[in-house]
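Action item from last week, closing it out:
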Amino acid sequence: MNNVTKQQFKRVWFITGASRGLGALIAKAAIDDGNAVVATGRNAATIVERLGESPAVLAVTLDVTDEAQAKAAVQAAVERFGGIDVLVNNAGFGLLAAVEESSDADVRRIYETNVFGLLNVTRAVLPVMRKQRSGHVINTSSIVGYQAAAGVGVYSSTKFAVEGITEALHAELKPLGIHATMIEPGFFRTDFLDTSSLVVGKDIIDDYEATSGKLRHLAREINHNQPGDPVKLAAALIKVVDSETPPLRLPLGTDTLKAIAEKNAYVTTETQTWKALSASTDFPA
């Protein structure tokens, strides 16, 4: 297919995990807003089925854990559209298990996708944005990326990593004219709690029934009945990208706002309680 110039579109978006769920909805919202979208996922044919064929869409097969594939996907995007304005690192999955219940294989697998995969794609895209001296990196964190919870400790840790990476990117990229934002969705009505997106630990320990076990039961109860509207989330990202001063951190959902307020209050109280001991560890002035 002949190259399509970047100027024909409002922006060029590069979205990982775009074959279903939030990724597909974000892609659709971006297309409807007049943008070109490089929609990536493990099966490009599935993306075409979901989004249709259009001059505004480039479907690319991408396993984010494969660094060579990430570089090839970025090259294909540049060849087709001339650049990349928005990167949405959306690909990832969850792990529902107490920390002790989380197997080594599951832990390594989730880090390969949620952390190392995000880094693979980000490293591939940033040279394009640095050359342009413009762009916006949006990394998908979570409500448990700010406040960890029993039963998702390892998953939370991958999102804590995403938050740290994004805060550093914000400081490193701002002088280059590039924005970095982390989004923190709460519970949204997608298929994330299905087995297609969520690994449930196989080794269940009875001692954790009242903690991680409680969340395991809750996940089954609220699946497809979550409070967050994913279509509204996708629309919110359009507004963030259009903003002249986008946020570093964007909580999405009243449940995330509540979790942040609760954690901030807890940290403030605990810090004050132990302030004297904390301060006592300095050398004398």
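Closing note: The chain has a mean pLDDT of 92.
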